[in-house]
What does this fold into?
Amino acid sequence: GAVVSQHPSRVICKSGTSVKIECRSLDFQATTMFWYRQFPKQSLMLMATSNEGSKATYEQGVEKDKFLINHASLTLSTLTVTSAHPEDSSFYICSAKDGTDTQYFGPGTRLTVL
Amino acid sequence: GDSVTQMEGPVTLSEEAFLTINCTYTATGYPSLFWYVQYPGEGLQLLLKATKADDKGSNKGFEATYRKETTSFHLEKGSVQVSDSAVYFCALFNYGQNFVFGPGTRLSVLP
It folds into this structure.
């Protein structure tokens, strides 16, 4: 089946620094990618929808200046957490659609901000 | 808007027990329905899906039938294993909209 990768799988950073997370669709082209955030023992919260070559659409309550999303190609989307703070610590998961209504999820990136 | 409700967990079963995780949804039109599984420390994996009423999705011994009359998509497995311990998410997708996930149900299977 379709494979989506994320890099890095874990990242620890100091408060105030920026962190970039990559999401790649390895064997298909994804015109649309999604970024989710998952708090411990909770469901996924959609942060934004990313379309190749255009600006991301952010969900209500998500700061677009803090969570920068770039979808530069049909196989790569990046999420940059700018000026990270401890409350940004979370599990970030991306997904990609393959042209059907099925989303394929990446393995997730655990961000810890000290 | 569309929504998904799942039975609250955690669910704790002994190995080889029968599993049912209830899922009901509210949506306009004819959404596709999904079950995703998340193993500890990992991302979500598609477990099974159904795209229209009365369809049955199945995979790895798990089954779920799309019941439009009861707006349900309950997940079942006849004999669970310790390796099935994970969090299970029911989700729906309506064309032109985003995925909507249920809150997840944590399953623990004891040997």
Q: What stands out?
A: The first strand of chain B starts at residue 3 and ends at 6.
